[in-house]
Amino acid sequence: MKRMLSGIKPTGRLTLGNYIGAIRNFVAYQDDYEMFVFIANMHAITVAQDKAELKKNTRDVIALYLACGLDPEKTTIFLQSDVHEHAELGWIMTCNSYMGELQRMTQYKDKTAKGETGITAGLFTYPSLMAADILLYDADYVPVGVDQKQHVELTRNLAERFNNRYGDTFTIPEPLVAKVGAKIYSLQDPTKKMSKSEDNPKGTIDLLDEPAVARKKIMSAVTDSLGIIQYEPEKQPGIANLLTILSSLNGEEIDHIVARYEGKGYGELKKEVGQAVFDFLTELQIKYHEIIKSGAAEKVIKEGNEKASYFAHKKLMKVKKKIGFQIF
Ligand code: TYM
Question: What percent of the chain has pLDDT over 90?
Fold first, then answer.
């Protein structure tokens, strides 16, 4: 069985973008792949985090993974910082990465271009740690949204470089980016990614938003003045985004939705999308609250950590031997 791995940072609350671009696919793939899904809390601290919030957000990611349908019988769910091999291989990967290639990573480039101050060294070497996450488990595939594809491509280069230098060690992973929903856009600026860190909360739907509030956000989503419902992301990014959200939640082909809306107005489309989001969040949050109450998250993580550590340890030993760290 081919192996798959992915993770999400517990920075802020998870968004509908995280669900559609990532978690929904993890759930779909868990029957056919050996699946590893983790909480990337070591990546979270590349920007300053409040301790209490980080703890809450981390617990929430676990509970939301389970509420969205990840099954711990099928998927190994673990916490990155509890499997210390990530930090160790992360360092080795940092030493295997060139400054130039890290400088080309868009996340880092965007932050520096905006003139942000206080960029940490961790943020710069973030992709090297991400490579370690993936390579420790010999993942064949890495399901991610569009924004993370570049990091998986760097991982491939680092793995090939290591294999060439030290002999066959790592599986070369492939990014898996879904055809629909790999980038969900802000409801207020549909040319920008919907993101946990967006300044305008009206642009982002949090998975833990009150369903009625989320519906309102859809109703006030920015569209255009063309008045035609068609899937034209360049010309009508707002409408394309709403169509993508609906298709991802109800499983209907976008063409089919467009055909249903021939001659109809944006208000009607927004109403249907708003209702789909409302229903989705209502059901999800019922499960989330049950999971939080049951205390299931702790057991899932303990078992997941153990299983992940078993694989990570074996792999790291092999790497250490190859590079000359094991001397006796
Ligand atoms: P993160 O936490 O930013 O995002 C988690 C996943 O959600 C996807 N995503 C989106 N997809 C569609 N539309 C959006 N608006 C949207 N926003 C986020 C992301 O593409 C991602 O798949 N570096 C990673 C975490 C990570 C990781 C890894 C992932 C660390 N190590 C190893 C895979 C493998 C990150 O910051 O994702």
Answer: 95
Tell me, yes or no, if 193 is annotated catalytic: yes
DSSP state of 185: B
Per-residue pLDDT tens digits for 19-43? 999 999 999 999 999 999 999 999 9
The amino acid occupying position 137 is Y
pLDDT for 183 equals 97
Q: Where are the domains of the chain?
A: 3-177+295-323, 201-289
What is the CATH code for 201-289? Answer: 1.10.240.10
User: Catalytic pick from 74, 149, 192, 196?
Assistant: 196
The architecture that CATH gives domain 3-177+295-323 is: 3-Layer(aba) Sandwich (3.40)
Residue 200 has pLDDT above 90, yes or no: no
Residue set of the binding site for ATP: 9-11, 17-18, 145-147, 184, 193-197
pTM of the model: 0.96
How would you label 134-147 residue by residue, b for 16+ Cβ within 10 Å and e otherwise? Answer: bbbbbbbbbbbbeb
Which residue of 70, 79, 148, 194 sits with most ligand 1 atoms within 8 Å of its CB, as the best mutation to test the pocket? 148
Helix axes 121-135, 106-113, angle to 10 degrees: 170
